[in-house]
Design brief:
This protein is of the alpha/beta class. Helices cover 36% and strands 20% of the residues. The protein has a nine-stranded mixed sheet with strand order 2-1-3-4-11-10-9-6-7, sandwiched between helices. Strands 5-8 form a two-stranded antiparallel ribbon. The chain has a two-stranded antiparallel ribbon with strand order 12-13. 40% of the residues are buried. It comes from Ottowia oryzae.
Length: 265
């Protein structure tokens, strides 16, 4: 009886550790209006490969009528053909106000229509009135979890950015400004329970053009997306303590079951 109880307790602990890392995630990729289908397909597939493990992922062309039920929303659209509409911004604000975790993509100076609406949305959410800038591609990486994996610098392919991070903080920046900004819980004045990340570059998600540092930054961004409040990480990156714990659980339970069967034979 005691051994059976121990087995059940171990199973419960393993199930709890797995449940803690699973999110319902929405990817909005703008596939119906993209000027570069290969970029859109590449970033979507690479997100699924890099970030998707353990999550239930829905891919949509445009934002659905309701964002309820999603713990993470990633707007991967980047082109001028896909600005954030007034309806998009209202839905995104309500989502952040409900405690959601969101990523929004911007781009370089050539995609001003998209960038302007991203900056408008940041202001609407209470993240500050930001000014677009071309900061230069070589930037320092700062802050948890973006420095995970020993990452300290990144050279973007062709990024845009802003002169300041508003009420957020730069995750990648130089003396001219920064291309990656994050707002943790409590830093968005009009959505204090939400978290937001914005990167003004799409190439770091593209398999053909990514450098090792861009790849690591992407992985770290995935971890930020799975952080409750931008604080306690619950993602399961490869070889992380959570991943090793999950593996140990599976192997341990399997061994216990085998031993139990042998003793009954």
């Amino acid at each position: 009886m005691q051994k059976k109880l121990i087995l059940h307790l171990a199973a419960a602990l393993c199930m709890a550790s797995g449940a803690a890392v699973a999110d319902n995630v929405l990817l909005i990729n703008g596939s119906g209006r993209t000027p570069s289908p290969s970029t859109t397909t590449g970033t979507t597939n690479n997100w699924l490969t890099t970030c998707g493990a353990g999550h239930t992922v829905t891919v949509a062309d445009t934002p659905p009528a309701s964002l309820a039920g999603y713990q993470q929303v990633w707007d991967l659209r980047f082109a001028n053909q896909s600005p954030l509409t007034t309806a998009d911004q209202a839905a995104y604000l309500a989502y952040l106000q409900s405690g959601g975790r969101m990523f929004v993509m911007g781009e370089n100076i050539n995609l001003g229509a998209r960038n302007a609406t991203v900056i408008d949305f940041i202001d609407t959410a209470g993240g500050g009135a930001l000014t677009f800038v071309d900061p230069g591609n070589a930037q320092a990486v700062t802050g948890v979890p973006f420095t995970d994996g020993g990452l300290s610098t990144i050279v973007w392919w062709a990024a845009g950015g802003t002169t300041t991070p508003g009420s957020g903080v730069f995750a990648a920046s130089n003396a001219n400004g920064g291309s990656a900004i994050v707002w943790r819980t409590g830093t968005l004045a009009n959505a204090p329970t939400g978290t937001l990340a914005v990167v003004f570059d799409v190439s770091f998600m593209e398999p053909p053009s990514r450098t090792p540092n861009e790849d690591q930054f992407f992985r770290n961004l995935c971890a930020f997306g799975s952080m409750r409040g931008g604080g306690a990480a619950v993602a399961v990156p490869a070889n992380s303590p959570w991943a090793l714990w999950s593996l140990a659980c599976a192997l341990g339970l399997a061994a216990m079951v085998i031993l139990r069967k042998r003793r009954h034979n």
